[in-house]
UniProtKB/TrEMBL annotation:
InterPro entries: Phytyl_CoA_dOase-like. Signal peptide: none annotated. Pfam families: PhyH (PF05721). It comes from the Bacteria. This is Phytanoyl-CoA dioxygenase. One of its GO terms (molecular function) is iron ion binding. It comes from Streptomyces lydicus.
Amino acid sequence: MLHPVQQLLGSDAYIYQFKINAKSAFGGDKWAWHQDYLAWRLADGLPAPRQVNVGVFLDDVTEFNGPVIFLPGSHRNGLVREGRKDTAKSDQHLDPDDISLTTGQLAQLVSRHGMSSPKGPAGSLVFFSPEIVHGSAPNMSPFARRLLIATYNDAANLPQPSGQARPAHVVCRDTEPLLALDVPFSESLEPLTA
């Protein structure tokens, strides 16, 4: 995944966040319409939207099990500013509801960009901008929908929190640029010895 991330950023990168968004069968909450970068700017003081999210489907994703819905191209105009608050209830945790778009903003953006929901078998990848507007509905199906999200950040775009930095299990402290292996993964493994 690193090579495409470096191509998209045009720079070295490190893992900024790593999380799993799990929606169990007949469960899992909705995620309000939001843009990730606003949360990271508020909570971590990230100077610029120089991140790439990589979503890895851990389960088959269908139209029925609460897939992420994107507004294609909505990232091209940066953050939606009008009527938005640049504060949060907590500097340690931001819920999408804290930074959600209004229904009027969403209706206007949908009329301009439409809506799209990537679907596919487990193992599929989706690369997306930290400024794309996205959200998801609850999972009303009998099929789980788990999504691993690895967020890469430009190695020169380090967090600058105004208060206490969020915990290391939320925001990675190792900001050393990652190096891609030039050999197949299996060749880089050490042989097991008895």
